[in-house]
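Ticket #4471: structure output looks truncated?

Reporter: J.K.
Steps to reproduce: submitted the chain below (322 residues) through the standard prediction queue, then opened the result file.
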Amino acid sequence: MSRAPAPPRALSSGDARLISAFLDSQAAELGAAQNTLLAYGRDLKAAAEFCAAHGPGLGRAGRRDIEAWLIACEAEGLSPATRARRLSAVKQLFRFAVEDGLRADNPAIEIQGPGRSRKLPQTLSVDEVDALLCAARATGRSEAERARNACLMELAYATGMRVSELVGLPVTAARGDPRLLLVRGKGGKERLVPLTDKARAALGKWLALRDAADAQRQKDGAAPARHLFPGRGHTGHLTRHAFYALIKQFALNAGIDPARVTPHRMRHAFATHLLEGGADLRAIQTLLGHADISTTEIYTHVLDERLRQLVLTHHPMAENND
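Returned output as attached by the reporter:
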């Protein structure tokens, strides 16, 4: 699986940490390919070097700094496609910084690129999600592993949590057969997300097995596990990369192309299916923990495109309908 490349040493420590955190998020949550991560790294390095030479650095850059960099890129003779790609990388970096509480604003959000269309997020159908949930329930070497896998996927689809929020859930959040989970999101912001009956059932089954195993470990002298999904690493919980590998295995077992399935795509499925069911966009924004409604509005475009394809495919007067 892809791993985020280390940022160049020439960058300031602040910009290096920001770029490294962004690339790691792209690798673990979106499953970005190594070549994609390398391209992001090169584009962001170019932006950081320019901003460091002409201003406060990339992490503290303002709109004028980014616009000046784009003008310099055009002066270099870079193609419109290359400039659009570079702007896209910077926009995504700042969006990550805002959602993670590292910045209060995205200075590039209103900057128009050189005519490159916005790519809509890919999602999964309801049937595909059902197949993934069935595969998760059947995947694992033991009853406990199968229960954990089922709980992970049921919670992911029921709540639309980011993978970092899901794997890092404290076990205290799951006590008492909750109908709502308190989630600590990016930037330390908290939100309540409701649970479906299936998610509550999967959570209860996993919690009983998890607690029994944890009690046995404590008898052997180990400290009690603090997380709902314990892990052996320094974080104490299942890692994002481990969940990424698991969801690929679920896809294989479900007969779905693993390239189409990532943890973040489950989040897209949650939002898209809610919108298709008539949910209010503001409610979806709250459930997803988006700081800006413009981030959530992308799902209206996904739905519009689906409806357009439905008409083109099934309307009796459509040219593509044989």
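Triage note (M.O.): checked the attachment and the full token line is present. The chain has two domains: 13-99, 126-305.
Status: closed, working as intended.
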